[in-house]
Design brief:
With 393 residues, the chain is an alpha/beta fold. It folds into two domains: 2-101 and 223-379, Alkaline Phosphatase, subunit A (3-Layer(aba) Sandwich); 116-220, Phosphopentomutase (Alpha-Beta Plaits, 2-Layer Sandwich), CATH 3.30.70. The chain is built from 13 helices and 15 strands. Strand 4 (130-135), helix 6 and strand 5 (155-159) form a beta-alpha-beta unit. It is globular, with a radius of gyration of 20 Å.
């Protein structure tokens, strides 16, 4: 008995009811990128019922090229996030059964973003000065400050609309081990501020041609209660993590991990774990949608990435056994046609595939933690404190 949980990082489907609170009225990641690309060609996701999902929203927009399916092979629904925030950790933690209220602290976007009480000990303990200290695009700030960083050896530190303390460093200027140690120092300093993540952002190349590498690492705040991952492991059910999942959950509730750096590597890791494991949860984050296309406002590239994943799913589905469960969802939005370069507060799709079973309308789900409750139900462990299982429908 195996469950495969795939998070399509940032693939939202339309503004959430509280989008105005986040200045995100009008966002709709999947419908907007599909329209910008002239339509999506995703026959597998269409058969699973992706085109049926936006029809569940109060003001849902159609997904160009993906009409509703009369008899979908998967159950379909949409989930509304309850926690405060629209970042990766908040979304993933709610998927695993937690609720963040209040949410993580945000730093102000205007420089200086980080207070002296945080930066001064960071500088002292790492032995290097800092550049930046503001909210910025990750690629933009290394273009702006990368050359000075290489000359001075100072860290590039910056934040965003998420609860993050990010540290960029050229791999030939500062070794990766030192960058990761600096992140561990920053993690400890950020804990009293309730900051969601400290992120290592290594890059390479020459001025004018810098590129971020796949050696990114996330150092997450420690969850304040047990997630469904920990509950599974406590009940001798293995949890296999793919991509940045291990980092997001602060290495808790994980039996084995493959820390891949891109979507295609993560897809192959899922297949390896699927071949290896006869029971347990395989939990993967497909990162490229957010990291490469959403934040860089590239709807065409985003659409092609969706189509590539659709082809991957066409290969994955026949590999599943009768007792298996596949859940495909997202953690937030990142509309590449919207203003700015940050995440967007959106509903996310929910597709639930069980071989040989008919697809059902799962409706609008109040809380991502319905996923965690459903996993608890599927594996027969005690219910978690929040959510309703959609497997009982």
């Amino acid at each position: 008995m195996r469950a495969i949980l795939i998070v399509l990082d940032s693939v939202g489907i339309g503004e959430a009811p509280d989008a105005a609170h986040y200045d995100d009225v009008g966002c709709a990641t999947l419908p907007h990128l599909a329209r910008a690309a002239g339509g999506l060609k995703v026959p597998t996701l269409q058969r699973m019922g992706l085109g049926n999902v936006t029809g569940l929203l109060p003001d849902g927009l159609p997904i160009t090229g993906v009409p509703p399916e009369e008899d979908p092979i998967a159950s379909f629904g949409a989930m509304q996030e309850i926690s405060e925030g629209k970042d990766t950790v908040t979304g993933h933690w709610e998927i695993a059964g937690l609720e963040m209220r209040p949410g993580f602290r945000l730093f102000p976007p205007e420089p200086p973003s980080f207070p002296p009480e945080l930066l001064d000990p960071f500088i002292e303990q790492t032995g290097r000065a800092v550049l930046g200290n503001k909210a910025a695009s990750g690629t933009g700030i290394i273009d702006e400050l990368g050359e000075e960083h290489m000359r001075s050896g100072s860290w590039i530190v910056y934040t965003s609309a998420d609860s993050v303390f990010q540290i960029a460093a050229h791999e030939e200027t500062i070794p990766l081990d030192e960058l990761y140690r600096a992140c561990e120092i920053a993690r400890g300093l950020c804990d009293p501020y309730r900051i969601g993540r400290v992120i290592a952002r290594p890059f390479v190349g020459a001025p004018g041609a810098f590129e971020r590498t796949k050696n990114r690492r996330d150092f997450a705040f420690q969850p304040e209660e047990a997630t469904v991952l920990e509950r599974l492991v406590e009940n001798d059910i293995p949890v296999y993590a793919v991509g940045k999942i291990t980092d997001i959950y602060a290495h808790r509730g994980i039996t084995e991990s493959d820390h891949t750096g891109d979507t295609e590597s993560s897809q192959q890791a899922v297949l390896r774990f699927l071949e290896k494991a006869d029971r347990g949860l395989i939990f993967a984050n497909f990162i490229d949608f957010d990291m490469i296309y959403g934040h860089r406002r590239d709807p065409i590239g985003y659409a092609k990435a969706i189509e590539q994943t659709d082809a991957y799913l066409a290969d994955l589905l026949p590999r599943l056994q009768k007792e298996d469960l596949l859940i495909v969802t997202a953690d937030h939005g990142n509309d590449p046609t919207f203003k700015g370069t940050d995440h967007t507060r959106e509903y996310v799709p929910l597709l639930v595939y069980r071989p040989g079973r008919p697809g059902l309308n799962l409706g609008l789900r109040h809380g991502y933690y319905d996923v965690a409750q459903s996993l608890a139900c599927f594996f027969g462990i005690p219910p978690i404190p929040r959510g309703s299982s959609f497997l009982a429908m």
